[in-house]
């Protein structure tokens, strides 16, 4: 908080810009926006030090609606702009907003490199499994067979799983949540913000216009307990509908496979259920790939691994060079051999 | 400062061009730069031209593995590395065959005779040994068993033959230094410093160097061959150093950061011949310089734009193919109206082209290579040392006008060196940048300065100035997104007017050499400066009615250029491309500017421009 | 073919311009295209201009969510969608406020009165209801409770209010069809086909349509308002259809594949306004068309180049920002000398700019936007239907000269429709391509055809023709990598000569309208064709000394252009950019071509060009 | 083989072009080239149907030396050219040659997408952990701390593991070998060529000029047995020096971690050692990340998963459309509403 302003308690309004929101009615983006706007005041965020930076897509309109610094860049490149900005001013709290097209199609390489470098940013990927802004073409997360304007006979591209891709690239904080699950989404953002390094958060988002119900198999209220696994560090991985049986994930003995077990069946107790460990990378790999119908989808923090943040290392190197190296420009120009003409 | 102390009788020469040529592994670049260095210390004016293969280390003995270094030094002020060498040093048959064609008739040829083995001759495509078949009779040949003499000289150090032979370039350097009356002290110092951790290597090289020098002193060279001396040149008094264009550029950018008070943030991706700017800046972290080797050129420029938004001097350095990749992001920077310096160190194109060769063929890409009406400022440096000043000028314009600036240099400037009078920082005008901190009445991010039309550089982190920017069209009055037709027209015109307004902020175009009107005007830009100036001077010495204009501000052109161009009967435009500045001049001024084009990856020879002048004058 | 059978007395009009405007969700584009379709069946000439927001579905009632569709139809041949509407249909207050300024004084305004609710008025920024405060007195207003009447009409189908209201555009269409004496049969057919699987939707829409039509027939409209008729135009005999530029382009590319015998392979990445070409081609797999939606524009063009090397007609479609990204790869295609068609459907720039608006501001990027001396052929289509022919021409030149060809269209052509006389494939000249299969004496991949300078298109898979190509400079005589200076000069000149040679292969430049010399020449390119032609015709009808030239071959220019330009006292160049063709003409021909520039994301009005003609003639 | 030519037994010479090789003396690229040239004749490859397609880098000079069709493209984009070529002529046998800079830095996104699509190609990534052609800058696989011209104070970027990245992107054939291990490299190429889909092969390559010895910790002859694990499908994962003890990999009971065990110590027998299963993706993830000194590096085929090849699916869709759809161009032009003017 800046010294000139008296510390006052901020509210959602302080994070809301005066611009009309231009998403379609019913778009999942509204819910995500509301959650961010409600969450930031609770963690003492300062609008002046907060930056939302996006690419191009429906989701990438996000920065216009936040009363913070905002940068609506070009398609796919947000992580690169964010890296330059963070290296310039590491005090900023930077949120990168991207979509499954922006972040995984044209921008996949920047995403991968920012993740491996571990620049201190939050990256929220709005995954609606479709190109919204350009009117509904299939995206890298669309399932095989999807009929879209560019795949009238059904897509034949095998999709990518964002969390797996991130893990493969070396991401150290990987989380997943759902647009409309504000109570899960808000805390996930808080965790992400707290992590020093790149936090990658995939948000399952519904595009009612071009791919309505893409996540229904996950979100379906009737079976949400069975289709979503809410991860908690140190807690057994249990799930199940309120009134149904409690289920859990177990490692098949001596294999590398997970299986769903039902508590109380065949003598299975909670003790048999695998305990989530955020620091266990192989576990994160296994969890990232789970999907209904055979498994619930894993939500929450899949992986949190401490590591040096890139911006901190870069700054440290510059600062230590300043201590020990040449700092006088005139002297620099005169390094090496010089001679005088009289 | 070293002085020349020998007392032999030496034939005095006004100017000499030497080319060292050998295998990539033969150390010709080092040999050349050490000779250069000593020559600078002797007080000559000089210019150099390194020319090396695209291969990292081509197989030994091949023609495409030949590496060359040419130096021109004189007792007067010179501006090019010389048209043809007076002296050619050829360390093997491949170096001979690829370079002999350039040697002046009657020129001096120094060859390592014992490198003319059967296998080397074959690799070079010789059916017979040229040292034995009189095919070199047009030259004065000194053929010596340089390898054997090197081995003998370094014998005491007990190196293996391979390592021992590494010193043969030093033996040769010693001989050439002697031939032109140069001391070897500076090279000895340099070797001791460079190999501080391997003293046996330093000392064996020194032994070879001294042996070569001694050979000159003691052995009988064929009559009519040396020794020579080249008296000091009359240079402007001051402290000098040798500088390559890329070093000057790196230092100029760092100086600009000091002069503006901005942090320098470079986003770059390695590419020949621009990589060494990244390398040089990476070594300047103690000056607060941040360098970011990005995953590609697009990320590099985007990071620089992100840095600019954050209040840094955002810079990206690359060559032509990289500029092509950056076009979309540069367009965004134009729309965002953020400062950005894009340096294009041009090389032979199109496509991968001739990566290690020089060319000026990115000019039209710089001016026009983006979607939409997207004007930016384009500058070009004229000499290696000028890269320092043009880097500062680029940063000054970028920050004052809130615009991307494209600075063009080329492979020839990048690697070529010239003696450079070192400026003192106190002499250089500061251009401090102020970021607004208060929210003025009616603040919005596109509120313009009425003079420069620049928008305010309000940076994230400033309380009260929160705002959103992006690549969609902005409303002139609020900075919000606007699809209004009249507004887009107005904003397009405003962006154009802002860039056009830069012309009022830079000096009027001057004539470089000659009168401000007359018969023939030679207009150049970039690295052709030296060759054109020399050619125009020579022509004028012969009484020919020719003047020269050299353009540093290519977009917009400086005021006064129009009048100058119209003042001449004929305008010719030598360029290392197929005609680009000539197109811009024709479109802008409707004058029949005629191109003199050389697209060979090689700089112009003075002679070539003289010939163009003569032929134009004849046809006038 | 439908015919007009009603027998009311109708006022005959020569030409009418109608604009339908409403919320993005109101189905204005459908309404417009159905009206267009019926009008075409009636034998009028017509032109259309859809103008929709960048937002997918902006919140209802907002001004930036307004979607418009303008149609101009007449009893004579017309070429533009009309300057100002004679009739404006406004489905809500936002549509009224954003469009009323364009309606002709005295024009007819049809409004859905019951959409003028308090909340809608507020969203549109109205403090009072304009239907009640006499502010519309300059127009003839028909305000009807369209929503209520729609609900009544579809009541029998038992839909919810929200769904029922969806048919209000059909009610309105019915009314407007009646007003201009058009049948609704075609729309009924279309609705039945479109909603074949949801018959209740089809039938409720049909009910609304019929109710609107019936309302016209039975209700008493204010006096002096309709009904009208617009007699048939005299069109060239033949079979016609409506066609948008993007459909014509997709079909032209497919036709080119048939005419050449090549497989069509499209590499593309969605971008407005080019995406619909990808969509259209994706539906043509039965013609052997392969479409590849790549991960980005770079991959898209690279895939097309890979396809070309493999012997396909490699095509990539995009808009300005995409072309910027493709620049490096296009440079490679130039070096490889492979056929490639790059289609740039221009939109408002720079950067993201105005993605859904039209502009011509990529011309200089097309001609110059690459590193190095990298000439390629640049073409432009003039009308939606012309996109078909220019796609074929692009493919013909690309394959004959082994070169990338950039074809420019724009957002206006892409989405605009015109009646198009359908060609028969048998009439279109074939241009079969032959791949060498035998290894000729001295084969190498850069062996050139002496006439076209094209290299052989030897494709992988052919035994005996194995070869290597790449982006480094090639030896003229062997096709191997060459760093030779003279060779690079020669190759650069050869690449330039090859492209220049295309001029000899295309028809001489013709005057479009008027004499081949005189006082004033209007030179245009691309989609300004209609507006310029109409303006020049009108001026000539008034006896003004003006001619028109329209350029389809932009690089190189066609032969004869020079003479034409020099034949006039004055040349003006209307362009939807800040002056690009004018720059090319000035640089090439040194004539003082003066720009008439409109950079508003909107096509020229005929009136604007007439005004430019008048003012030039005054100053002559 | 083309019908016009009589089938003759080809040799290395048939795959060797007449161009001088321009790599530095001692470069690992020579060995890889020789192995390819020797291997192709053994599997009946036809030079006319074989294509080598590369980006830019030392490694990317490769196509010039093969007497097949060759395409030296631009930096990072080879997978995209290859995709277009393969879609045009699926009969071609296409080898993409790339480097750690070309394929993972500028070209990372194309690599990731070609892998997820599973286009039938072989991609050989020459990993020398450095930018060779541009004279020695660090690359995305360089280890933290590497001093290079662009990182004079040591790099601070966390490196990427090519095989992990490939797996995260959804690669289905992932292998690894070593430049100078011709006997392992050749058969690995054969396996890759046999796979219908994208086969990704990382080759550990030495650049004696700019990063000499980058793989010494793996290749060191004295301990090669301990530092390399030669994977064989269905065989226990054993390794160890000839004269030293036999070691193996075991899954730590009920965890997701691998550990090294020594046969004969603490009652460990071969039966305790994990058996390699090429079709087990979680196992491939674990193996991909192993590196000395704690583990041997895994060489050979890490993963081979059958899946539809993209080019085959695309072609099938076109062919079936040709059967059932419109094929007459004149008819196409007349689809929808038309009318006649007389
Ligand atoms: C260089 C470039 N290419 C293409 C586009 C067109 N484009 C805009 S958004 C988009 C895809 C958006 O998809 P996604 O990121 O999933 O965002 P969503 O709209 O679904 O939120 C595309 C292809 C563009 N603006 N710029
Ligand atoms: C667009 C572009 N950017 C940069 C370059 C310069 N460049 C050529 S090769 C290379 C890196 C090569 O590294 P790698 O792929 O690891 O290949 P290696 O030389 O190590 O085999 C770079 C940066 C280029 N040719 N083109
Ligand atoms: S198109 Fe889809 S993602 Fe875009 S705003 Fe509309 S509902 Fe949301
Ligand atoms: S620089 Fe390294 S990788 Fe390149 S050719 Fe030389 S040794 Fe090989
Ligand atoms: Mg999306
Ligand atoms: Mg490498």
TrEMBL record, chains A, D:
Record EC number: 1.2.-.-
Gene3D superfamilies, per database record: 3.40.50.970
Keyword check for Oxidoreductase: yes
Organism whose genome encodes this protein: Enhygromyxa salina
Keyword Membrane: no
Any one Pfam family match given in the protein's UniProt record, by short name: TPP_enzyme_C
Span of domain Thiamine pyrophosphate enzyme TPP-binding: 56-203
Protein name: 2-oxoglutarate oxidoreductase subunit KorB
GO BP field: cellular respiration; small molecule metabolic process
GO MF term set: oxidoreductase activity, acting on the aldehyde or oxo group of donors, iron-sulfur protein as acceptor; thiamine pyrophosphate binding
InterPro entries the UniProt entry points to: 2-oxoacid:Fd_oxidoreductase, THDP-binding, TPP_enzyme_TPP-bd
UniProt KW keywords: Oxidoreductase
From TrEMBL, chains B, C:
Pfam families linked: PFOR_II, POR, POR_N
Coiled coil start-end: none
Record domain Pyruvate/ketoisovalerate oxidoreductase catalytic: where: 25-213
Keywords in alphabetical order: Oxidoreductase
Residues of the Pyruvate flavodoxin/ferredoxin oxidoreductase pyrimidine binding domain: 265-474
InterPro entries: 2-oxoacid/accept_OxRdtase_asu (IPR022367), PFOR_II (IPR033412), Pyruvate:ferred/Flavod_OxRd (IPR050722), Pyrv/ketoisovalerate_OxRed_cat (IPR019752), Pyrv_Fd/Flavodoxin_OxRdtase_N (IPR002880), Pyrv_flavodox_OxRed_cen (IPR002869), THDP-binding (IPR029061), Transketo_C/PFOR_II (IPR009014)
Biological-process GO terms, alphabetical: response to oxidative stress
Domain Pyruvate:ferredoxin oxidoreductase core: 519-583
PANTHER family for the chain: 2-OXOGLUTARATE OXIDOREDUCTASE SUBUNIT KORA (PTHR32154:SF20), PYRUVATE-FLAVODOXIN OXIDOREDUCTASE-RELATED (PTHR32154)
UniProt organism field: Enhygromyxa salina
GO molecular function, one term: oxidoreductase activity, acting on the aldehyde or oxo group of donors
The protein's Enzyme Commission number: 1.2.-.-
Gene3D superfamilies: 3.40.50.920, 3.40.50.970, Pyruvate-ferredoxin oxidoreductase, PFOR, domain III (3.40.920.10)
Name the UniProt record assigns to this protein: 2-oxoglutarate oxidoreductase subunit KorA
């Amino acid at each position: 908080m800046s010294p000139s302003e008296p510390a006052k308690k901020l509210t959602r309004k302080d994070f809301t810009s005066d611009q009309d929101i231009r998403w379609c009615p019913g778009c999942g983006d509204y819910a995500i926006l509301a959650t961010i706007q409600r969450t930031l005041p609770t963690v003492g965020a300062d609008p002046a030090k907060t930056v939302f930076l996006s690419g191009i897509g429906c989701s990438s309109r996000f920065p216009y609606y936040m009363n913070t610094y905002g940068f609506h860049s070009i398609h796919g490149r947000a992580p690169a702009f964010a890296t330059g900005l963070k290296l310039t001013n590491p005090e900023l709290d930077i949120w990168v907003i991207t979509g499954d097209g922006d972040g995984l199609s044209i921008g996949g390489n920047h995403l991968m490199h920012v993740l491996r470098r571990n620049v201190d940013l939050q990256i929220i990927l709005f995954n609606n499994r479709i190109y919204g802004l350009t009117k509904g073409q299939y995206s890298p997360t669309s399932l095989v067979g999807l009929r879209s304007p560019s795949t009238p006979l059904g897509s034949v591209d095998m999709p990518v799983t964002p969390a797996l891709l991130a893990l493969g690239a070396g991401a150290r904080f990987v989380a997943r949540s759902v647009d409309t699950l504000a109570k899960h989404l808000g805390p996930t953002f808080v965790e992400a913000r707290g992590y020093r390094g790149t936090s990658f958060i995939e948000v399952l988002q519904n595009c009612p216009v071009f791919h309505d119900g893409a996540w229904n198999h996950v979100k379906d209220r009737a079976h949400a307990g069975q289709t979503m696994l809410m991860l908690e560090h140190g807690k057994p991985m249990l799930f199940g509908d309120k009134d149904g049986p409690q289920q859990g994930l177990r490692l098949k003995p001596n294999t590398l496979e997970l299986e769903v077990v039902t508590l109380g069946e065949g003598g299975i107790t909670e003790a048999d259920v695998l305990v989530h460990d955020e620091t266990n990378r192989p576990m994160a790999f296994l969890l990232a790939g789970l999907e209904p119908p055979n498994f619930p989808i894993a939500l929450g923090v899949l992986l949190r691994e401490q590591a040096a943040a890139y911006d901190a290392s870069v700054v440290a190197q510059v600062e230590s060079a300043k201590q020990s190296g040449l700092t006088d420009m005139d002297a620099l120009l005169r390094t090496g051999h010089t001679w005088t003409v009289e | 400062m070293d002085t020349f102390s020998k007392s032999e009788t030496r034939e005095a020469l006004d100017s000499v061009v030497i080319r060292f040529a050998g295998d990539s592994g033969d150390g010709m670049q080092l040999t050349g730069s050490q000779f250069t260095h000593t020559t600078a210390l002797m007080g000559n004016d000089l210019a150099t031209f390194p020319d090396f293969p695209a291969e990292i280390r081509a197989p030994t003995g091949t023609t495409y593995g030949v590496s060359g270094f040419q130096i021109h030094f004189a007792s007067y002020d010179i501006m090019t590395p010389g048209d043809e060498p007076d002296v050619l040093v050829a360390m093997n048959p491949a170096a001979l065959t690829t370079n002999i064609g350039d040697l002046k008739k009657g020129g001096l040829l120094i060859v390592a005779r014992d490198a003319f083995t059967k296998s080397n001759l074959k690799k070079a495509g010789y059916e017979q040994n040229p040292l034995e078949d009189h095919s070199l009779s047009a030259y004065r040949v000194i053929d010596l068993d340089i390898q054997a003499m090197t081995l003998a000289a370094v014998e005491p150090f007990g190196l293996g033959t391979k390592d021992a032979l590494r010193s043969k370039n030093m033996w040769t350097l010693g001989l050439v230094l002697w031939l032109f009356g140069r001391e070897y002290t500076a090279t000895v110092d340099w070797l001791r410093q460079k190999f501080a951790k391997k003293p046996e290597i330093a000392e064996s090289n020194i032994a070879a160097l001294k042996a070569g020098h001694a050979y000159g002193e003691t052995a009988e060279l064929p009559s009519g061959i040396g020794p020579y001396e080249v008296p000091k040149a009359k240079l402007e008094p001051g402290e000098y150093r040798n500088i390559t264009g890329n070093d000057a550029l790196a230092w100029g950018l760092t100086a600009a950061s000091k002069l503006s008070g901005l942090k320098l943030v470079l986003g770059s991706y390695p590419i020949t011949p621009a990589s060494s700017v990244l390398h040089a800046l990476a070594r300047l972290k103690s000056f607060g310089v941040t360098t970011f080797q990005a995953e590609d050129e697009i990320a590099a420029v985007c990071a620089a734009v992100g840095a600019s938004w954050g209040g840094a001097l955002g810079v990206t350095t690359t060559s032509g193919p990289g500029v092509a990749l950056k076009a979309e992001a540069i367009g965004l920077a134009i729309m965002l109206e953020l400062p950005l310096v894009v340096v294009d160190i041009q090389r032979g194109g199109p496509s991968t082209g001739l990566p290690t060769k020089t060319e000026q063929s990115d000019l039209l890409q710089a001016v026009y290579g983006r979607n939409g009406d997207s004007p930016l400022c384009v500058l070009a440096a004229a000499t290696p040392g000028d890269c320092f000043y043009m880097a500062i000028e680029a940063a000054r314009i970028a920050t004052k006008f809130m615009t991307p600036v494209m600075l063009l240099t080329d492979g020839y400037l990048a690697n070529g060196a010239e003696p450079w009078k070192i400026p003192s920082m106190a002499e250089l005008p500061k251009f401090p940048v102020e970021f607004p901190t208060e929210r003025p009445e009616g603040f919005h991010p596109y509120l313009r300065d009425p003079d420069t039309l620049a928008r305010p550089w309000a940076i994230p982190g400033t309380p009260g100035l929160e705002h959103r920017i992006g690549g969609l069209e902005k409303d002139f009055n609020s900075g919000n997104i606007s699809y209004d037709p009249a507004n887009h027209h107005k904003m397009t015109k405003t962006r154009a007017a802002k860039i056009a307004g830069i012309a009022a902020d830079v000096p009027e175009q001057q004539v470089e050499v000659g009168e401000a009107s007359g018969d023939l005007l030679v207009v150049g830009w970039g690295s052709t400066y030296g060759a054109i100036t020399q050619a125009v001077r020579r022509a004028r010495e012969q009484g020919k009615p020719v003047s020269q204009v050299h353009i540093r501000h290519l977009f917009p052109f400086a005021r006064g250029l129009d009048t100058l161009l119209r003042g001449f009967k004929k305008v010719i435009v030598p360029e290392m491309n197929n005609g680009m500045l000539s197109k811009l001049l024709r479109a802008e001024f409707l004058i029949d500017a005629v191109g003199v084009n050389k697209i060979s990856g090689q700089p112009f020879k003075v002679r070539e421009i003289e010939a163009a002048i003569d032929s134009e004058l004849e046809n006038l």
